[in-house]
Sequence to fold (486 residues):
Amino acid sequence: MAHVSVPSYWNALPQKYRLVAGKCKECGYVNFPPQILCNNCSKSNTQELIELPEVGTIYSYTIIGRGAAPPEFKKMQSKSGAYAIAVVELENDQKTKINVQLTDCDPFKIKIGTKVTAVFRIIYEQEGVRRYGLKFRPELKNPK
Amino acid sequence: MTKLKICGYGCYIPRFRIKREEIQKIWGHFQGRIAEKAVMGYDEDTCTMAVEAAKNAIKNAKIKREEIQVVGIGCSSPPYALRSMAAEVAMAIGIPLNIRLLDFKESEKAGTTALVTCIDIIINKGGKGLVIGSDSPKSIASDPIENTYGASATALIIGKSDGIATIEGASSATIEIIADRFRKEGSEMVEDLGIPQYHQTGYINSIQQAITNLLNELGLTTSDFQHLFIQGHDTREPTRVLRKIGFDKKVLHTDTINVIGDSAAASVLTGLIDILDRANPGERILCASYGSGAGCDAFSILVEKKQEILEDVPIMQTYLENKQYIDYNQYLRFKELIDLET
Fold:
């Protein structure tokens, strides 16, 4: 089974739960997840933590068919069938792109450019601990 | 008693629904009166539902996360028997962690237990309270009590000022009863002793007593209330209490139970906000929970104004309309009523 250790997952909770990123105070670049060295100007320890907007658009996606999922997703896939993963372009100035799973949608009817919002879901369970995180679903708006 | 306000609220209803006919087709019968019910998807549990409801409530109440001083959750079907769900929700929302976290798990009325407790804490401590009811109880597939078990989550923000409604008072009552429904430690499945008289005795008497206490304390009569919500396993059950407590059937709301099912610890809060979405300023709401054991918490709520609808924070009606029907096969998988590969 592919193994993400409990400490690594723990360290990543702020970005998995709330899209916490590191904005470089020197050059303004948004690093997701936060880094020690800025990915743009390479200066160290210059990033302040910010939360990225939980809305974006689908930039690209692919469908994971039955049997093709990494082993930690096996149980989930025995319930869900095929599911989609996507590159989502967030609605911040830099249009930060992140890799996420899509949920609450038919994976075979997804369109690039669809607006999506973040939702808190179970990613998988390992060592008895449920690993939660954000997935994205098609935007749900109140009718005007 | 200092009167607290409901500053805002939010809910979450999972997208999947199963119709009663679909279950009836498989088992030949359907016990309980509902039209359809909500089912959690493959990547949801009571914790994820609680997080979405709480985020919606915070946005609707237009408060800062830092104002929250206490998080109280009621849930009879938590993902863990030991591991704070309130802590998980606080982390997910990004609430500063030096606050009080309360988890109530052992009753179908755990949601209102969380509410009465948070009311007392906020009266003493000030700040805002985040009260959540989130639940999706289950029983074995062949047990008729599984028929009406649905899923929903609702969150309220309570505080001393800036409210859309006032919580005028709360009363509780308990009666001595041996058992009706129960879930043993280590089991996910609710069981029923199967003696309807026991359930009805506990249900009718505890609710009647709590409501009588509440009306006496506040000096109100049944005619002061325009809306009534009573927790029940189906839409028929609350009507059994009506005559006893002298309420007219016109004021009783059962719509949420009819389309969501029995969401136990989330039931009353979900029913309450459905009424708040529709009630006019000046109207009064009475709501009463029921938990096997048996006890009831009853509340009187005076509506002051309607909550503003924000475009990007789905209201209950939006969640209810955003639905996808599933067949019985998917239902068994989603609710894990059959063994799955691990």
